[in-house]
Q: What sequence folds into this?
């Protein structure tokens, strides 16, 4: 709809330069430009990265490992250029990527499609804390959205938390939570 609207708005201005059709949808498009060999290689590599990322996400999903729960590492038995490793790390929420196979495969979930991939499913207390923090951030963001709050507007959140472990985790990560949710957090006394 927007393309048609825009076309209708500017067609009078360009009618002297070219023949104008009734609708943008009747215009003939230029053929796509040829891509270079290097661009083609990058596109092929990105497709490979998408397949690997999808395989890791499938391992997570089939083992009930939420994407907001960070994991320590993944081993990928394939040479991958350094610039693509950061993309995979962010997409699958792991701290480290190693190329090859782990020596000890005890805490690893494995797939061989599209290549051998070993995902470490051991969740340390520090990783668990980070996952809880990420869940809490998501909860606050969802709450803001449900209340139709503008993301740029800073709001106050008054919390009553009976669970000391959860309260400690939120307290230790309060700066990150407040920054990512644009919220000022206050702890109220429990009743």
A:
């Amino acid at each position: 709809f927007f393309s048609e609207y825009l076309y209708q708005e500017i067609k009078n201005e360009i009618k002297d330069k070219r023949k104008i059709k009734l609708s943008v949808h009747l215009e003939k498009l230029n053929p796509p430009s040829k891509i270079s060999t290097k661009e083609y290689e990058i596109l092929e590599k990105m497709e490979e990265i998408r397949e690997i990322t999808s395989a890791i996400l499938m391992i997570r999903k089939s083992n009930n490992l939420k994407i907001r729960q960070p994991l320590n590492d993944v081993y990928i038995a394939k040479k991958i250029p350094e610039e693509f490793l950061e993309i995979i790390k962010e997409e699958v929420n792991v701290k480290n990527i190693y190329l090859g196979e782990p020596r000890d495969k005890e805490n690893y979930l494995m797939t061989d499609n599209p290549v051998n991939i070993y995902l470490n499913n051991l969740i340390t207390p520090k990783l668990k804390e980070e996952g809880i923090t990420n869940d809490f951030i998501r909860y606050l963001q969802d709450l803001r959205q449900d209340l139709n709050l503008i993301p740029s507007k800073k709001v106050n959140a008054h919390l009553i938390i009976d669970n000391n472990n959860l309260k400690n985790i939120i307290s230790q990560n309060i700066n990150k939570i407040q920054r990512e949710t644009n919220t000022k957090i206050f702890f109220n006394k429990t009743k």
